Amino acid sequence: MISLLAAVLLILPGYAGAQESTRILWRDEPRQQLHINRDYINSSPEHIRAILAFLSTRAGTACQQTEPNVIAVDLNDPDLLEMGLADLFTPAKLACELTAGVGYDDQCSEEHIRFVKKWFRRDAAIFQELDSCARAAATDGNRTVFDLLEIEADAAAVTVRYTITQWNPFGTKTESFSDRYELQYDTLQRTAHEIVDSNMARF
Questions:
Q1: Beta-ladder partners of 198
Q2: What is the pLDDT of residues 165-190, one digit of tens each?
Q3: N or C: which end of the chain has fewer CB within 10 A?
Q4: Residue 140: exposed, middle, or buried by beta-carbon count in 10 A (0-12, 13-18, 19+)?
Q5: Which of 26, 9, 30 is nearest to 18 (CA)?
């Protein structure tokens, strides 16, 4: 009877032992287009989006640099003379797929970093890593990009496995990681972070 009950629990939706990984980012082949699971991100609770927002600071996801543009102004505007130079241009932005998916159109912007810090406010290691937020466009010779990211989540913890490739003019370094995050009411703590594979290739 006990073994039958255990078997039933294992197949019940939402039971911790029955959790499966969900791919968030992936490439069908190396160097090919990056796919993003927007449906999963859009339907995720805020703490999942906070984890993804943090991870997006570690590497690029098809990032595109937008240049500043001149703002159309009314020459008869009485406040025109009080405008500074910065008021006359839209700022340059780095638009990245994952960062945009969690709600921010500029990678590493103040709003993006503030959201991550709100959820990881008790995790000093995360705060330090935010200082090296990835700001390279997909066309840069020196860039760090995601190749794979998948999540396994239950009510109290989230396991994330991901692969990042660092590109430079001389070759690549690819590393795979496994992280664990624990949810404590309205804060997150990273409780595990390990490299599970690493290799280098020269051109």
A1: 175
A2: 999 999 999 999 999 999 999 999 99
A3: N
A4: middle
A5: 9
In the block, tokens 């000093």 appear at: 124
Radius of gyration for the alpha carbons in the chain, expressed in angstroms and rounded: 21
Token pair listed for 85: 């130079």
The enclosing H or E element of 98 equals helix 97-101
Secondary structure (DSSP) of 126-176: HHHHHTT-----TT-SSEEEEEEEEEEE-SSEEEEEEEEEEEETTEEEEEE
E strands in the chain: 22-27, 34-36, 64-66, 69-70, 89-90, 93-95, 143-153, 157-168, 171-184, 187-202
- pTM for this model (two decimals): 0.82
Tokens of 167: 């590109």
141 CB-contact burial (10 Å; exposed 0-12 / middle 13-18 / buried 19+): exposed
Of 101, 122, 134, nearest in space to 181 by CA: 122
